[in-house]
Specification:
Radius of gyration: 18 Å
Helix content: 55-70%
Order of helices and strands: HHHHH
Number of strands: 0
Largest sheet: none
């Protein structure tokens, strides 16, 4: 079938899941000391600490004042699901395996 017959939200959901799966597979091939995992939720909740840990991992020389300045620009997005938005059950079915693998669903 052609993509013309597939709703855009389904195309986007499938592409997101495939891109994340490909990224995870490729990252797993790297030496673990070269991989830094940063969760959006942790960054938004505690940006100074999370940015400080990232800077240390990178071995960069960044002042605490610059980290604090950068942290002030980090704010939660109002467009994230969980704020009462309805997700079509079909789209949820597409996303669920990857969201579960990433720890967002049980």
């Amino acid at each position: 079938h052609t993509l013309d017959a597939v709703p855009l939200d389904e195309i986007c959901a499938r592409q997101w899941a495939e891109c994340v799966q490909t990224s995870l597979r490729d990252i797993s091939q790297l030496p673990q000391d070269r991989v830094y995992r940063l969760r959006y939720e942790a960054l938004v909740k505690n940006p100074v600490d999370e940015l400080s840990q990232l800077v240390r991992f990178l071995g960069a020389q960044v002042s605490e004042s610059d980290i604090s300045l950068a942290a002030r620009s980090i704010r939660p997005s109002g467009n994230r699901n969980g704020n009462g938005e309805h997700v079509d059950p079909h789209i949820e079915d597409i996303l669920r395996p990857m969201l579960t693998q990433l720890g967002y669903r049980s």
